[in-house]
Amino acid sequence: MSRIIAGAAGGLALANVPGTGTRPTTDRVKEALFSRLESYDILHDAVVLDLFAGSGALGIECASRGAARVELVELNEKAAGVCRRNADQVNTVLRRRVVQVHRTGAEGFLAKLQAGGHYNLVLMDPPYTLTDSKLALLLDLLVPVLAGGAVVVVERSSRSPQPQWPAGLECFSDRKYGETQLWFAEPAEASLQQNP
């Protein structure tokens, strides 16, 4: 069982996804990730998108730490059910509906969005089996919906190559934690001028 690390719902136990098909972010990686996001001062009042949400633990951690809205996107039926239970639990603690769950695929969800600066933070923890070309397509679909100053975090196997960043995104940092690699990107200057 995982727990929310900090914030208004800190210590709250979250349900995990039973069986296989999802890969929870380890506590070590989660703590390092949120330490970094806190240093960017990006979480307070942020609009967050958690693609391939699994149990929703990363997005729900954002809600606990002050995000204004969190959207969890998960296609797997069992995982989406766990997301809903965890979202209901944290929304009850926070006394407002911060976390919403969408049971759909990441590509279909992104393709339906209108262009505009919707998201301040995007967390992507796709299955390691997701191809590099599919990841590149998803990153390209993200560009038109990022707010100025947004941060995109991609979690992959440390054996995977760096994502193929589209013209509208620039990688500014990466960190390795054992078998896990985190990549951090932000909108490119030209992209910001097109999507104020």
UniProtKB/TrEMBL annotation:
Keywords: Methyltransferase, Transferase. The keyword Methyltransferase applies. One of its GO terms (molecular function) is nucleic acid binding. GO terms for biological process: rRNA methylation. The keyword Methyltransferase applies. InterPro entries: DNA_methylase_N6_adenine_CS (IPR002052), RNA_MeTrfase_RsmD (IPR004398), SAM-dependent_MTases_sf (IPR029063). Transmembrane segments: none annotated. This is Methyltransferase.
